[in-house]
Amino acid sequence: MPTSLKDTVTLHNGVKMPWMGLGVFKVTDGEEVIESVKAAIRNGYISIDTASFYKNEEGVGQAIKESGVPREELFITTKVWNADQGYESTLQAFETSLNKLGLDYLDLYLIHWPGKDKYKETWKAFEELYKQGRVRAIGVCNFQVHHLEDLIATAEIKPMVNQVEFHPHLTQKELLAYCKAEGIQLEAWSPLKQGKLLNHPVLEDIAQKYNKSVAQVILRWDLQHGVVTIPKSVKEQRIIDNANVFDFELSAEDMEKIDGLNEDSRAGSHPDTMSVGF
């Protein structure tokens, strides 16, 4: 199990990815995102997850520059948006993201949503960028088992990561088992269900037992399931608290209790219906 923010999991191509990072979904570009990323880096985070759709890549890039931490010590992720899917348009979107971030390579590039019929073309562009060494690892977001099977059937390189909505109300057991079997690292977005789980009585009881917050219990549950997690916050104290999950371990019984909260309910869109035609 990871024991600090610097600890990594090794992806199937040998690249080391931190177990925990900062997500910046819905964080405003400019001062807000710059300060939140700098606060995270200052407090030991090395992984930052953004996306072209978040419209804050420039702020993230600015924060990286101002942080004073050498680029190669950080792990930076961004994503191609639905409207940019397709071979040529993905290559262009990549250049745009890289320019906005002010970087000359990415650590991880992800397809944001599967959609219906363009992700194979998009993936070919990803494979090209990977072969050129412009991205250290490539992956997908919100892909279900059927999307992954379809992609892998014709892909030259298997996705290294699948970032999905994952929390105690959406435990994605079948997907987690499939990804483990295929050597694809599962990563949780919205691990706290956008704050909707923070007052759950079962989680409150467990948190009290370990003298931790509900958020810390959920993030620890992610890690013990072997899932990378990227909680989002703009408050420095919360960013610090979210990372304070390496000094305790949930018992097997408590892990099961949390697993038992599954309702297959989502805070975000369902991958099969999210703008299917794009």
UniProtKB/TrEMBL annotation:
* Annotated ranges, domain NADP-dependent oxidoreductase: 22-263
Look up the signal peptide feature and give its range.
Answer: none
* Keyword Nucleus belongs to the record: no
The protein's matches in Gene3D superfamilies, at most eight in alphabetical order, are given as: NADP-dependent oxidoreductase domain
Coiled-coil annotation: which residues? none
- Does Oxidoreductase show up as a keyword for this record? yes
Q: Name one Pfam family in it.
A: Aldo_ket_red
Q: Which SUPFAM superfamilies match?
A: NAD(P)-linked oxidoreductase
Residue ranges spanning the membrane: these are none
Q: Which key words are in the record?
A: NADP, Oxidoreductase
- Family stated for the protein in its record: Belongs to the aldo/keto reductase family.
Q: What is this protein called?
A: Aldo/keto reductase
- Which species is this UniProt entry from? Neobacillus driksii
